[in-house]
Every structure is written in C-alpha cells, then in structure tokens.
Design brief:
Length: 423
C-alpha cells in the first residue's frame, strides 16, 4: 500500500496534494516536494471515506486541533458528539478523541462517522486503561495488546496517532537524575515511564518501532511523535529530559521518512515567552524540520480559568517562529473536562493565535483578510465585517437606528464617520 510520502518521493502528485494546493493557494509541485522532504504531512487515512484532508507543515497556514473524549468521571457519547458539532461550527481544522471512559471503540467509531474532519487518537490511552481495568497494574500491559489497539484504531480510520516513542529508558534516566518541579504531565508518557520502571524493559513503541511503521504505512496514518516529557510548568521548560526525548524523536522522524511513513513532532507544553523562539528553532533543527505540533505553549502558570489566553499568547509566538499546528487549550485546562461552551472558547482563542501567526509569517491570504476587514470598517460595511470576522456570532443581534451601526459609542465608527464627511 502506497502513502502520500512514497508517492511524493516518486515524483507523483496525488489527488490529496492537488486538493491541498488549491486550498492553500500554492503550487502542486510545492506540496509534492515538501511532502517528499517530510516538511508537510497530509492527514488522511487511506481507509477513511468521509474525511477531507488537511495539510500541516512548512508553507501551510497554521492549523489548530480540538480535543474531546469521554471519561469515567464525567462525559457521555452524546456530550462528545455535541462537542464535535461545536468544533465544526467554530472552525477547528482537526480533532482528537482522547476517550478513557466506557466503550472506547464505539465512541471512536461514532465520532469518526460523525465528521469530515481528520481525527487523531492516543492508542496508549485505551491500551493502558484496559490493562489497568483488567489487571490493576500498568506493568501487565503487553506489547501485543498495545500494538493490537494501534492497528485497530488505524483500521477504524483515524488519520493520525500520538505515540510516545521517545520515552525511552535513557530519557527516563535523565529525568530521574535531574529532577523536576512537576515530573511527567503527559498521561501517555507517564503510563510508559511507569511501565519501563516496573518491567525494566525498553518502551515497546521504541523497541518495535519498525512494526509500528508497518502499521502506519498500511493505512497511511501519520505518526504524531508525542512529547511524553513535555514541561508541565515554566520552570521545567527546556530541561535535559525534554531535550533528550527530542533528540530521540529526531532519529525516529528520519526512520519514518525512510520507511515511507509521514511523521510530525509534538512539542511543549509550558514555556516562558522568552524561551519560545529558541526552543521552537531547536526542536525544528533536531527533528529534521518535521511539522511541529505544540500544546499552547502556556506562557505563565498562574492563570487557571484563563489558560486559553495564556496558550493563545504562546501559540502566536510559537507559530511566528515555526510551529505548524496548535493544540487548543480551553478555560477548563488544569481544572476539569471542558463543556461545549469552553470548547468553543478554546477554539476561538487558538484561531486568533493561528491567524496572528500566519500574518507574522507573511501568509498573503491572512494579510489580505486583515486588509479587507480594515476596508470594511472604513466603509462602515457591517456585512463584510461579519464575513471576515473569526467569530461571526458577535455581530448577531446588533442594531442601531442609523447607518446599520451597532453602537454610536464605538470609537472607530464615530471617527470614520467624521472622516468620511470631510475626505
């Protein structure tokens, strides 16, 4: 079975590459070359019929992901399907199903069937949860069980999977030698670190990486090489454990490309603003300029309830310096599972960050959108302003007796009305 990267390396332009080129307003050859080089990935499982491909990487607009998923504590399939509708309406590019509740297979399959957006998962969540449910001991998770869940999810149609292959014995040793403020905050990373410590064996996702590549290549599923040692607070950002894992991920990116498998890399986490530019540059260089998928980064640790804002600040700066894919953060981060309203707020914050980063990166389409909004404001054209707005709903219900303006107290409105009378 061929893949996007195999076709690109052979000089062939696929249907998906043509679609992406038109959508991103670049040439087909640009897409083909970047896919061949591993600098762009196309999220599209070759078994899934109802999805619209999305490209992530160099020269593409910055994309955003929204996470959903059931839990035993709170959340049902119906609630998560409602979030899918919110995600589509609000305009996220991709979603991930991180379910850890009951009937994980059923939930995943219904989510896949409910949307045309590319879908990602973390197979370790299901494998680890079911091992704990059955044995009450993560060390009882077998390599065969983990890889069976990976293949099952790929066969179901997921377009990319987060796999924490870089959490190796050496990396865990680095973590233990240095210490941390917040330890391991990645759920998948923590599960694998505990498994390694309990069994004394190497991470199966690393030890049997070639088998993982075989599965991904069969379905053209993109590997999202997870940051299991991402910093969970600003004080841990850029420490030895994080860098050690990133070096391993760089090795795995090259092996994936050589094997005909698309791969992107996941990044931090919590990072103070002053460290973001150099950190993004370092990760890109260490991982052969694979597409970079970041959570936030969150630039401060003292804003619970407002972490969608701290993440948007960091996401803008990260995107400006080369991050390609932003994982949204909701106001419920560090507090609990988000409801549909908080999902929407998280997406909008991430969309603002992604667009601002696109403008800073010189994306002509993004710059033109800002210009057209400015022209609409100058012309007092509220209809066009709504068209170009990231959140169009803010214009709903606005009303005024004169000129269609929502409020004569608006400074821009009053100033521009005066300007038009004399110039």
């Amino acid at each position: 079975m061929s893949t996007q990267i195999i076709e690109a390396q052979a000089g062939n332009i696929t249907e998906e590459m043509s679609f992406i080129a038109q959508k991103e307003e670049v040439s087909e050859e640009f897409i083909r070359q970047k896919v061949a080089d591993g600098r762009i990935v196309i999220l599209k499982n070759n078994q899934r019929k109802n999805s619209i491909p999305v490209a992530v990487g160099e020269g593409m607009s910055v994309k955003i992901n929204a996470n959903i998923g059931t839990s035993n504590e709170r959340s049902t399939l119906e609630q998560e399907l409602d979030k899918v509708r919110v995600i589509e309406q609000t305009g996220a590019d991709v979603l991930m199903d991180l379910s850890t509740g009951k009937d994980i297979d059923e939930v995943r399959r219904k989510i896949i069937a409910s949307t045309t957006l590319p879908i990602g998962t973390v197979p370790m969540y299901q494998a680890g949860k079911e091992a704990l449910d059955e044995h009450h001991n993560i060390a009882k998770l077998s390599k065969d069980k983990l890889f069976a869940d990976i293949e099952k999810q790929c066969r179901d149609g997921v377009d990319f999977i987060t796999v924490h292959c870089g959490v190796t014995k050496f990396v865990i040793d680095q973590l233990e030698r240095q210490g941390r403020v917040t330890g391991i905050v990645s759920r998948g990373g923590a599960m694998l670190a505990c498994w390694i410590k309990a069994t004394g064996m190497e991470n199966p996702l690393y030890a049997y990486y070639d088998e993982l590549l075989d599965i991904a290549r069969t379905y053209d599923v993109t590997l999202s090489l997870g940051d299991g040692l991402r910093p969970g607070c600003g004080a841990d950002a850029g420490d030895r454990a994080q860098v050690a894992e990133t070096i391993v991920l760089g090795e795995l990116v090259k092996r994936a490309k050589k094997s005909g498998v698309q791969a992107m890399v996941e990044g931090p986490g919590h990072v103070p603003m002053n460290k973001i530019p150099s950190m993004i540059k370092t990760i890109k260089e260490l991982t052969d300029y694979a597409p970079l998928y970041v959570l936030g980064p969150l630039v401060t640790d003292i804003a619970p309830g407002y972490d969608h804002i701290t993440a948007a600040i960091g996401g803008t700066l990260a995107g400006m310096h080369g991050a390609d894919f932003l994982c949204y953060v909701t106001p419920a981060e560090h507090l609990g599972l988000p409801n549909s309203k908080q999902v929407r707020e998280g997406i909008l914050a991430s969309k603002i960050a992604a667009h601002a980063a696109d403008v800073a990166r010189g994306c002509e389409k993004a710059i033109e959108m800002d210009k057209q909004m400015s022209i609409a404001r100058k012309n007092l054209d509220w209809t066009l302003q709504k068209e170009y707005a990231i959140d169009k709903s803010v214009f709903n219900g606005l009303n005024c007796e004169k000129d269609g303006a929502p409020c004569t107290m608006c400074g821009d409105y009053c100033s521009m009305k005066i300007f038009k009378e004399y110039f």
